[in-house]
Amino acid sequence: MIAKHSHVLPGGGERAFPCLLAWRLTSIIDQIGWGMNVKNRRMAQGLVTGAVLLGFVGATPAYAEGSWSSYITGWTPGSESRRWVDNNTDSVSTSVSFSGCSSDGGTGFRQAGLKVWKDVLGPDDDKGTRTNTCNSVSWGDLASGEYYFELWSVTSGGVLSVNSVTTRY
After folding, report:
1. Coil vs helix vs strand at 21
2. Which DSSP symbol is given to 26?
């Protein structure tokens, strides 16, 4: 609930403002605006009030609808992540981030092929494969549904471990 505050205008009139900040800013306009005619002063007060309210109403946080973090130990191609539900209430891309990657290959970890699947009745829907080089890869803004990723390949070795996995959707 927004508190309403009253402000006494020059000439004795009273005006209610839905926000203390707007009231304070319009008080400043009253103090410096003695040279303004009443119409211009009221217009300035209305603009300030509207701008303050638009700032409160129009401010929305920019963050993903959801995310989860985990780690990977001893995965081989065909291993699957946990499932997550993307309700598509935002326009954030689905991404999988790796850090601290290692594999059992002689030259160490180079890259992992990750495939995102949409879990559906019947064969799951392939949303594409991305190459993760111990960084972040994205599949764009996916439609609502239940998803998971699969380790499709490992370059240099056949067993993958990752210290930190973060999935955002």
Report:
1. helix
2. H
